[in-house]
Specification:
This protein is an all-alpha fold. Helices cover 45% and strands 0% of the residues.
Length: 137
């Protein structure tokens, strides 16, 4: 390009044309197929021959097997049918102990906010069950 003509191009357009030209040159260089590399790859870390032993292997504690079962009683069936769709019984059992009003609000929140399919006529039995087995009262 004639330098005297380039002088009349606005500065922003000059920058854009330089960027465009360098981008095109980069694309052509990137597309060129370089010669295959003969370098060898050195592993970053090696796996030890004998793995380290767990320092807690002789501890006497054992994890529980299976999942806790909710206690039987009126309200256990709605708990199994509706609450266990989303929650494990272990999750339900480890919730903080709530009052009757707290469990009622929690069940209503699950119904209204999260769409739990708990029929209105089963809410009182479910709340009673939760209060009896996981409540403050």
């Amino acid at each position: 390009m004639n330098p005297t003509l380039f002088r009349f191009v606005p500065p922003r357009a000059r920058v854009l044309s330089v960027l465009l030209a360098s981008g095109l040159a980069g694309m052509f260089l990137w597309a060129a197929d370089p010669a295959p590399s003969t370098a060898t790859v050195t592993p970053v870390a090696t796996v030890p021959e004998k793995p380290k032993l767990n320092p807690h292997r002789d501890d006497l504690w054992v994890l529980p097997v299976g999942e806790p079962v909710p206690p039987e009683g009126e309200g256990a069936e709605p708990l199994r049918r509706h609450c266990a769709l989303c929650h494990s019984f272990d999750y339900i059992a480890t919730q903080p102990r709530l009052s009757r009003a707290g469990w009622g609000a929690s069940v209503e929140k699950m119904r209204s906010k999260y769409g739990a399919p708990i029929p209105t006529n089963q809410v009182p039995a479910l709340v009673e069950y939760l209060v009896k087995n996981h409540g403050k009262e």
